[in-house]
Amino acid sequence: MQVTKQNRQTPSRASRRQQIIDAAIEVVAREGVAGASFEKIRQHAGISSTRLISYHFDSKDELLYAVVEQIVSQAVGFMQPRIAAASGALAQLDAYIRSNLGFLASRPTYLIAAVKVLSVATPEDSRVTHEQAEAPVRALLRAGRDSGELRAVDEAVAAMAIRSAIDGAAIRYSLDPQLDLTALADQLAQLFTTALVARSNEQNQGRTPP
């Protein structure tokens, strides 16, 4: 296994690394990627030298990658138990949408930092990010189709539509913090679950077929 800076960390060094990532998230959210210099991150973290940042991260890109990793990890930790607690594919789809936007509403600094980092990602990085984000949605749609609970649809298109709606809400919030993400989550969850529920399952869900 290749030895990296991260897996060489002692507890104290791991704590310092985490301190730098947390500061970077705050600075990126406030200043944007271009304005998030090591010096500004150093000041926000309250550490003595930018050399301490360079010890843990070879470049700004590596630090930004760690920022995105942390945001994704925290989001997954928030969402997974809520999705797992839902019974059936339709309820899990509802929980996926609500918990994703619920996490962003609870961590607005994470939301804004993620939007700003991803806005300057390379096309290849953007493609990989979108594919990774859409994969669990496709799996959920496939499971719902197989169980007969959800309509048989093009999973790639439906997953793209769901992720685009969530990502679009995040971008709108970064521009307008007065946006009510909870209310928006309610509307998006209803919109997609209504659109994707199987016709044979609509009566059970208390919905009138179109």
From TrEMBL:
Q: What is the name of the protein in this document?
A: TetR family transcriptional regulator
The HTH tetR-type domain sits at 14-75
Q: Origin, by domain of life?
A: Bacteria
Question: What PROSITE patterns does this protein's entry cite?
Answer: HTH_TETR_2
Q: Which UniProt keywords apply?
A: DNA-binding, Transcription, Transcription regulation
InterPro entries attached here? Homeodomain-like_sf, HTH-type_TetR-like_transc_reg, HTH_TetR, KstR2_TetR_C, Tet_transcr_reg_TetR-rel_C_sf
Q: Could you tell me which Pfam families the record lists for this protein?
A: TetR_C_24, TetR_N
Q: Which GO terms describe its molecular function?
A: DNA-binding transcription factor activity; transcription cis-regulatory region binding
